[in-house]
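Take a record.
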Amino acid sequence: MPPPPVNPDAVFLNIPYDKEFQNLYLAYISGLYQLGLEPFVTSGIPGGERRLDRILSLIQSCRYSIHDLSRVEMSVAPPATPRFNMPLELGLTITWAKMHPRRHTWFLWESTPRRIQKSMSDLDGTDPYIHTGSVEGVLSELRNAFIHRNAPPVRKMVAAFRLLEGNLDAILAGAGTRNLYAASVFKDLCFVALNAARIELGT
């Protein structure tokens, strides 16, 4: 089966889905729309195919991907288990990009300098974008990663993030869930983030 067509503005987000990451999740969604890009996540994949097949198809359809390894750590709940989903999806992406370099570009993200050299030494020589675990850090590094895009100032990106954050309770209530990572919530977050970007950019 041939790979799906590539969306030139699509960005696959390979991130942890937990409470501690919620603000950064919103920052990625908001910030990407500020850059004229469109985020995609695994929770938004429809269909009944095997999950790994759907993830690979999504990666293949996106022109870019961001792999945030800042939370590859032992789980708090017993039994203590390392989190391998993000490295696994990064490995799939690297293989795909090596085979089709004109179709896909991937970016590595971390919160702590030099930690990636210890956690994944095979990636030595790849410079990660360090967001320091902050919203401002994510937005600033998005501007650096996508330097070819027409990026607004960070202060405007933060304002758009605050607008999205301010609508969060209404979005969750409308979806009838407190799960920020639910597929319907992601869809609504994208709708609000896109409109916030248009307001901040004056379009």
The two ends are 40 Å apart (CA to CA). The chain has a mean pLDDT of 89. The first strand starts at residue 7 and ends at 14.
